[in-house]
Write a structure and sequence with these properties.
Residues 76-120 form the NADH-Ubiquinone oxidoreductase (complex I) chain 5 N-terminal domain. The protein contains 20 helices and two strands. By secondary structure, it is mostly helical. The protein has one domain. It is globular, with a radius of gyration of 22 Å.
Length: 508
């Protein structure tokens, strides 16, 4: 049932952006009453998700939703258009905002964090900018809100206020702003100079007569200008941002920031260049192999990290390049795999970060070497970690299986056997740096002397994180399972994206 039937369809776009913005203002107004402030946060998140569901319904019906706000330059303005890829990202972000808010309530209280009102306010502002990115109708609108997202998340990265947080924030802001100004801005200007438009169009906006050398340069500028995709060597901002509280890490890695990066690259490939046109560009393979190198190198670095959040951060760098590689394979089915990976990686990685935060709150442990035997104390959390890890690896019966399957088939379709090898090796590396964590937690004893004489385990031994955190962990780990057995709604949505298909014959 559509709860927003009485609203003009195009105004749903306005509501999707304004509702979290208004929520941020209400969070400030109710900041002195924590229970009311958090009720406002959860209510706003639920309302936003219902709006996105209504937009999704219109998308499946084939109804075009378009909103022109203002003309900034002749023929170029702030405008929004709903298309299936943006709807997919909006569904992921709005749903996970609900879950992350539940988790954050438990975390912020359990960890006795200061400045909680500022945290929830900036979180809502970030989601507002994400919705604008999802439904951006041209490159100018995307660029503006891409920058707004960077600025609105900076206070979250520096939330702790200590020297480490400030240094991490400087790295975060410095890399993301410098790449967007030095590369992305010039890519946007170059695109307009060449085509006279910045609109997103099915099949791309470049013509067959456009200079292929210029287009090749523009592709590199877009790939590196969208720094949130964390392609090496412009990836250091992401590990640096791990000084932030765990709910912020979840926002960065699953709900908003990094997904905004890979979403933007995928959107540029589909609606600016056109998938078929990529095959003719000299730099497509170059950026493809840089993405493949990022997958392997960041996985190798992840194996060296003892700090759990640092290991997960480099894992994210690797997994993001799966999406970039899928986009650059210039294959319809690989692009579908990239789109699906936005969702499957989100539920898997947010589960892992939720578990990392729960471990820190309940046991005050940050390093993997200290987590041996922790499964006895935190069985629910470590079981959920195992589920999230298996999903990231891409093994049945978890969600990550399907996106990696489509990416592999897409690489075969594009006749890129080396990319197939990279995906397989990466999955083995995923096993090497993720699975030992829950295995040692459950099957190794904290003290080497504890063998047969250890007392039988009972629920009285457990010391889990606060209930809101466990509820969030339970929902996302269940999502890893649910998207394996019931991925069809997302696949149907992906098949609506122009030029993208989960079928080798190219038919949706």
């Amino acid at each position: 049932m559509n709860l927003w039937q009485g609203v003009e369809p195009s105004q749903l776009i306005t509501l999707s952006i304004l509702v979290p913005f208004i929520g941020a203002l209400l969070v400030i107004a109710t900041g002195k009453i924590p229970n009311l402030r958090e009720t406002v946060t959860l209510t706003t998140a639920v309302v936003l998700f219902s709006i996105v569901l209504a937009i999704t319904d219109y998308t499946f019906q084939g109804t075009e939703l378009r909103l022109n706000v203002i003309d900034i330059f002749p023929g170029i303005g702030l405008n929004f258009v709903v298309e299936p890829l943006g709807v997919l990202f909006a569904l992921v972000a709005s749903f996970l905002w609900i879950i992350t808010s539940i988790y954050a309530i438990g975390y912020m209280r359990g960890h006795n964090e200061e400045n909680q009102t500022r945290f929830f306010c900036c979180f809502a502002l970030a989601i507002s900018s994400v919705m604008a990115i999802c439904f951006s109708g041209n490159l100018l609108t995307l660029f503006i809100f891409y920058e707004v997202l960077t600025l609105s998340t900076y206070p979250l990265v520096t939330h702790a206020g200590n020297d480490a947080a400030k240094q991490g924030g400087r790295t975060y802001l410095g890399i993301l702003l410098s790449t967007s100004i030095a590369f992305l801005l010039f890519a946007v200007l170059g695109t307009y100079t060449l085509t006279g438009t910045l609109d997103f169009r099915a099949g791309g906006i470049f013509s067959d007569t456009d200079n292929k050398a210029v287009l090749s340069v523009l592709l590199v500028l877009f790939c590196y200008g969208i720094g949130k995709a964390a392609i090496m060597p412009f990836h250091r901002w992401l590990p640096a941002a791990m000084v932030a509280p765990t709910p912020v890490s979840a926002l960065l890695h699953a709900v908003a920031v990094v997904k905004a990066g890979v979403f933007s690259i995928l959107k540029v490939v589909i609606y600016i260049f056109g998938i078929d046109n990529l095959k003719e560009l000299a730099t497509t393979d170059i950026m493809l192999y840089i993405g493949a190198a990022t997958i392997l190198l960041s996985s190798c670095i992840a194996m060296t990290k003892d700090n759990l959040k640092a290991r997960l951060a480099y894992s994210t760098v690797s997994q993001l390049s799966y999406i970039v590689v899928g986009a650059l394979l210039a294959s319809s089915i690989a692009a579908a795999g990239s789109a699906l990976h936005i969702a499957t990686h989100a539920v898997g990685k947010i589960t892992l970060f939720f578990c990392a935060g729960a471990i820190m709150v309940a046991s005050h442990k940050k390093n993997i070497s200290d987590m041996v035997g922790l499964g006895r104390q935190m069985p629910i959390t470590m079981a959920a970690f195992a589920i999230g890890a298996i999903s990231i690896i891409g093994l049945p019966p978890m969600a990550g299986t399907w996106s990696k399957w489509y990416l592999t088939i897409g690489a075969l379709d594009a006749d890129k056997l080396i990319i197939v090898a990279v995906l397989m090796i990466s999955s083995l590396l995923n096993i090497a740096y993720l699975l030992p964590i829950p295995v040692k937690a459950f099957f190794n004893s904290q003290n080497e002397g504890e063998k047969e004489n250890s007392k039988p385990w009972s629920w009285s031994d457990t010391k889990e994180a606060p209930l809101p955190m466990l509820i969030a962990i339970g929902i996302t780990s269940t999502g890893c399972l649910a998207l394996f057995f019931y991925p069809q709604p997302l696949i149907d949505l992906i098949n609506l994206i122009p030029g993208v298909s989960t079928h080798l014959n190219g038919e949706g």
